[in-house]
Write a structure and sequence with these properties.
The chain contains 7 helices and 2 strands. It is mainly α.
Length: 137
């Protein structure tokens, strides 16, 4: 995002919303389990409705991408296809509310994905950083 720590934690500028307001527990290897299915339908639309000035939602990881793509009527396959069509997703969601940008989860596990998809750092990230700077002014 290319923001300072102060900007990131300024609640007037940035909101971090999990897919579920409950910890789903750990799997056998110690990783987080997927968000519980009942959580997002209970609260997500209400919380977003309470924030009418949101212009851009960063869909970090597969769970948020699937949820929001489905609610926007957008169909995409795997992570690479969703993120590769980032411009299409922005266009598809721009008129009906906040624009949505699919992103891979920022994890060491995705280093291989990042190396295999250099367009992400070359095209998407510079656009995102410029757009974030414009929005948080």
């Amino acid at each position: 995002m290319a923001v300072t720590e102060e900007e990131f934690y300024d609640v007037r500028r940035v909101a971090v919303l999990p897919m579920g307001f409950c910890f789903p527990g750990l799997d056998a290897k110690g990783g987080d389990l997927p968000p519980r299915r009942e959580c997002a339908p209970l609260w997500r639309a209400r919380v977003l409705a309470a924030m009418p000035r949101v212009e851009l939602i960063l869909l970090v990881g597969q769970y948020s991408q699937r949820w929001h793509a489905r609610t926007a009527g957008i169909q995409h396959g795997n992570l690479t296809e969703r993120v590769a069509d980032w411009r299409g997703m922005l266009d598809a969601t721009g008129d009906e509310g906040p624009r949505m940008l699919p992103l891979p989860h920022p994890s060491w596990r995705n280093n291989t994905w990042l190396k295999a998809n250099p367009w992400f750092a070359a095209e998407l990230l510079p656009w995102l950083q410029t757009e974030i700077r414009r929005l948080i002014r």
